[in-house]
Specification:
The protein is an alpha+beta fold. It has 9 helices and 15 strands. The chain has a 4-stranded mixed sheet with strand order 13-12-11-14. Strands 1-4-15 form a 3-stranded antiparallel sheet, with no helix packed on it. A hairpin with a 5-residue loop joins β5 and β6. It is globular and about 60 Å long.
């Protein structure tokens, strides 16, 4: 039986079909009615490689104590993980590199105090970096008076910069926690940060009782002889502020040149650090392989505390230059020894045993807050340092320190992830 369709309804149906066909035909003139994808507003993409970084490939590793658990902590049994590639600093962040951050913060505060600020297209005040600051000018010094400690209040008898004024204010968005709580407001996961960023140079004195380290405390960060030495006296909080600043610095430059930008500089997770440190050598105790800490000529392969405490036997009484000794097979220097390094991972004793780690890009999903109790602020530190014995140089060794603490033997290096190229190791 033929179904009767009213003429009015038929006309409406025909009109609707016509509108759909018209919309489809007007969408992409060159598609010829085919599904060809939308590639508008695309630019030629060339993966930028930040200066001083090396490529760490995608792969899998056996992590954990491959040699000895000398502390009998049982906190890192052998497990297999799959790791996605990234770029990492070939060396620890040096004094000269961190000073660039300190001076940027100093100059930004001075620019604001001097009124070198202009609104951008969105009405947001931006610093006019084209303006120059003559810090030797008496007029400028008068306007920046609050940034300095007066000579009369300084035991050394001269006017000096008040480093407590050097704070870096920024906002941190926690996308991970937001993703775990869909439907909640975006701004609920944006946190204001404002840490002091000048290194604690007094750690050389406080950390070592009955030891005359005042000379190196005065010179280490600012004296030109130590420019290429790793920065120390920087807390985990300060290291994260440096990462944010470096991201914004590079992002701003590339966007000004209309170049593509992705990723952000961060501290490596514990597993990323270990994956990079191994240099492709499965279950090796040290970045150079092992099991020995000297080469065939009897020369030490890292800066640590040999024997019963002969600090200088390896060529360095304290730290050494960031590019001292041979790099591992990925081109990374001093992954063991010289200074221990902050990671992004909170320290959880049973992270391995309790399967808190996934087997794909493992990390402890836990956040450290300024309001947390002190015992909740422990962060994983890796690599051992100039003041540690050889056992601490083992790649798998898990050390820890409080996030708001600075030490004379702890520094850091940064990394950045490029996902697309890492999936194929190209």
């Amino acid at each position: 039986m033929t179904k009767y369709i009213p003429m009015k309804q038929l006309s409406l149906s025909a009109a609707a079909v016509g509108m759909v066909m018209l919309a489809a035909s007007c969408g992409q003139p060159t598609s010829q009615g085919q599904l060809v994808g939308d590639y508008s507003n695309r630019t030629t993409y060339t993966e930028p490689v930040p200066i001083g970084m090396v490529r760490i490939p995608t792969g899998y590793m056996k992590s954990g104590y491959s040699d000895e658990d000398f502390k009998s902590s049982m906190d890192a049994p052998v497990r297999t993980f799959n790791m996605i590639g990234f770029y990492m600093d070939a060396t620890e962040i040096t004094n000269a590199q961190y000073r660039q951050f300190v001076n940027w913060v100093r100059d930004s505060i001075a620019h604001v105090m001097l009124g070198h600020v202009e609104p951008d297209d969105n009405g947001v005040d931006r610093i006019n970096w084209k303006e120059r600051i003559n810090y030797r000018s008496e007029d400028v010094q008068d306007q920046l008076m609050t940034m300095y400690i007066d000579a009369s209040a300084n035991p050394l008898g001269y006017k000096m910069l008040n480093t407590d004024m050097l704070t870096y204010a920024y906002k941190k968005y926690d996308g991970l926690m937001h993703a775990k709580n869909p439907g909640t407001p975006y701004n609920q996961y944006v946190y204001d940060k404002n840490p002091k960023i000048y290194p604690d140079t007094a750690v050389w004195i406080r950390q070592f009782s009955y030891s005359n380290n005042e000379p190196i405390a005065k010179q280490y960060f600012n004296f030109q002889a130590f420019d290429e030495y790793p920065v120390v006296g920087v807390s985990w909080t300060q290291a994260n502020a440096f990462c944010h600043w470096r991201t914004q610095l590079w992002k701003g430059e590339r966007q000004a040149r209309k170049q593509y930008f992705e990723g952000e500089f961060q501290l490596p997770t514990e597993m990323e650090w270990e994956w990079a440190a191994r240099g492709g050598r499965d279950l090796s105790p040290y970045p150079w392989g092992g099991p020995y800490i000297v080469n065939q000529k009897g020369c030490y392969l890292a800066n640590f505390k040999p024997g019963r405490g002969d600090y200088s036997a390896d060529g360095g009484l304290y730290t050494v230059k960031a590019k001292a000794y041979w790099p591992n097979d990925y081109g990374l220097y001093n992954m063991s020894g010289n200074v221990a390094e902050w990671t992004a991972t909170p320290y959880v004793t049973n992270a391995y045993n309790d399967n808190l780690y996934s087997d794909l890009n493992p990390d402890v999903v836990q956040r450290i807050s300024e309001n947390d109790a002190t015992w909740q602020k422990l962060v994983v530190v890796k690599g051992g340092s100039w003041r540690d014995t050889k056992q601490f140089l083992n790649i798998s060794n898990r050390d820890k320190e409080f996030a708001d603490t600075a030490k004379a033997h702890i520094g850091f290096r940064t990394m950045i992830r490029y996902i697309s190229s890492s999936l194929t190791n190209k």
